[in-house]
UniProtKB/TrEMBL annotation:
Source organism superkingdom: Eukaryota
Record-listed E.C. numbers: 1.2.1.3
PANTHER family linked: ALDEHYDE DEHYDROGENASE-RELATED
InterPro entries noted in UniProt: Ald_DH/histidinol_DH, Ald_DH_C, Ald_DH_CS_CYS, Ald_DH_CS_GLU, Ald_DH_N, Aldehyde_DH_dom, LUC3-like
Protein name: aldehyde dehydrogenase (NAD(+))
Pfam families, sorted: Aldedh (PF00171)
Sequence similarity: Belongs to the aldehyde dehydrogenase family.
Catalytic activity: an aldehyde + NAD(+) + H2O = a carboxylate + NADH + 2 H(+)
Catalytic machinery residues: E251
Occurrences of domain Aldehyde dehydrogenase (ranges): 27-474
Gene Ontology molecular function: aldehyde dehydrogenase (NAD+) activity
Organism: Imshaugia aleurites
Biological classification of the source: Eukaryota, Fungi, Dikarya, Ascomycota, Pezizomycotina
Record key words, sorted: Oxidoreductase
PROSITE patterns found in the cross-reference section: ALDEHYDE_DEHYDR_CYS (PS00070), ALDEHYDE_DEHYDR_GLU (PS00687)
Length: 479
């Protein structure tokens, strides 16, 4: 395996990568440091020619890569994880600038992610089914699709790039990564490092403007789109991909409900629920966004959440005491601000936080808890993707299950209670792809994440997450 060489990976210059080589472009764009609003580094805007070149390189690489044994592909992925780990410091500093996340949080998730990705590659395998009778032996296996476009979001630009690259190449596909223009830097560097491990054309990256996504979705040489983003954008991807019958995996938004049963320990549960609602400043698809608290403990539970929310320090990511950084970009800052404005204009009660967002150097918003707003209010029906969460009391179990399910999305849900058997009975009735009992949403790389309803199509993660990157093929052998 190649050893790390810091001279080969400079964290202050950024390029697209086509066929294993860095590539510039006539036009450039840049992200913004969300903590300071200062412009970051220039990066190239991919052209349609870049897209065609990348697809051609991937198609050429696919012929040989697709027949590399699974075990060898897994070993190269482990080598990639090891090489990435040698650059962790650089990636940590880059993510701080790119996302505004607290540095301690990035360091923890980075170490955890690099360790798990190697272990995951070693443990995963594609299933093979063999049926035999007097006449035939039928072997069903899973074969790679071809060229995959991985369209990644800005809230977790590194983690979610890896989450798409790993299953694509493990299953024998070649992948072209498209990072968000709000957070392109870590993905560009990640693929630059990957080019030291994988053959040219197997892993490529193109950053650019609003034209790039449609070019990839429309391209006849691409067989699959893996997309993480909003429900509205996911519908556009699905519609356009249908024109060439591309396979799609869509991991979209959610409006996750948490149901609090009356027998919980109020203080310890309120602490965890508060963390689940506000981690990463609320910018998590699979996260608590509506909280239903049993009426018998509603007021003390709300008071405890208020205490924990008020204690969360919001500020610069380099401060070791900071728990919440800024929102990642101005677009999301304006979206969240509009939701605060609507909540204030309707006279809903703020149990924690302030109804107005003060001006600041960065996109900072303090966490807010809304006390019993109407069920048809925007704060209940919409996904805020920011640090504001509604709480409502409940008394009837059937009613609260119906309220939790009264949404077009179904990504995740949580049920909290000392009687875990009862909590699981409720959890099984919730219309969500991932249900957590006595925990806020904690997705694992070895378990599939799949949205119900408008939260997506297909799933990613674990062994089941490999199958959407494949076509089943049945070999009928006659004796």
């Amino acid at each position: 395996m190649p050893s790390s060489d810091d001279s080969r990976v400079l964290f202050d210059s950024f390029f697209n990568n086509v066929n294993g080589r860095s590539r510039d472009a006539p036009e450039h764009y840049h992200g913004v440091n969300p903590a300071t609003r200062e412009p970051l580094w220039n990066t190239p805007v991919a052209t349609n020619e870049d897209v065609n070149d990348a697809v051609l390189a991937a198609e050429n690489a696919f012929h040989s890569w697709s027949i590399v044994p699974f075990e060898k592909r897994a070993k190269l992925l482990e080598d990639f994880a090891e090489l990435y780990a040698s650059y962790e410091k650089g990636f940590t500093e880059l993510l701080v600038r790119e996302t505004g996340k607290p540095k301690w949080e990035i360091e923890e998730s980075s170490k955890d992610g690099s360790a798990k990705s190697g272990a995951l590659a070693e443990s995963l395998h594609l299933p093979v089914e063999v049926l035999e009778d007097e006449e035939t032996i039928v072997t069903t296996r899973y074969v790679p699709l071809g060229v995959v476009a991985a369209i990644c979001p800005w809230n977790y630009p590194l983690v979610l790039s890896v989450a798409k690259i790993a299953p694509a190449i493990l299953t024998g596909n070649c992948v072209i990564v498209k990072p968000s223009p709000y957070a392109p830097y870590t993905a560009l560097k990640l693929v630059e490092i990957a080019a030291q491990i994988f053959p040219p054309g197997v892993v490529q990256v193109l950053g650019g403007n609003e034209k790039l996504g449609p070019w990839l979705v429309d391209h006849p040489g691409i067989q699959k789109i893996s997309f993480t983003g909003s429900v509205a954008s996911g519908k556009i991807v699905a519609r356009e991909a249908a024109k060439t019958l591309k396979r799609v995996t869509l991991e979209l938004g959610g409006n996750d409900a948490s149901i609090i049963l009356p027998d919980v320990d109020v203080i310890s549960t309120a602490r965890q629920v508060t963390m689940g609602a506000f981690r990463n400043t609320g910018q998590v698809c699979l996260a608590t966004k509506r909280i239903y608290i049993h009426a018998s403990i509603y007021r003390p539970f709300l008071d405890a959440m208020h205490t924990f929310a008020q204690a969360m320090k919001v500020g610069e990511p380099d401060d070791p005491d900071v728990e919440l950084g800024p929102l990642q970009n101005e677009m999301q800052f304006r979206t969240v601000k509009a939701l605060f404005d609507d909540t204030r204009a309707n006279g809903f009660k703020f149990a924690a936080g302030t109804s107005e967002i003060p001006d600041s150097l960065g996109f900072f918003v303090s966490p807010a808890i809304i006390d019993d707003p109407p069920s048809d209010s925007r704060i209940v029906t919409e996904e805020p993707f920011g640090p504001i969460v509604p709480c409502q009391p409940w008394t009837d179990e059937e009613d609260v299950i119906a309220r939790a399910n009264d949404t077009k999305t179904g990504l995740g849900a949580c049920v909290w209670g000392k009687d875990t058997a009862k909590a699981k009975v409720i959890g099984r009735r919730l219309q969500a792809g991932s249900v957590f009992i006595n925990s806020f949403e904690k997705p694992r790389p070895d378990v599939v994440v799949a949205g119900h309803k408008e939260s997506g199509i297909g799933g990613e993660g674990g062994r089941l997450g490999l199958l959407p990157y494949c076509n089943p093929q049945a070999i009928h052998e006659y004796k």
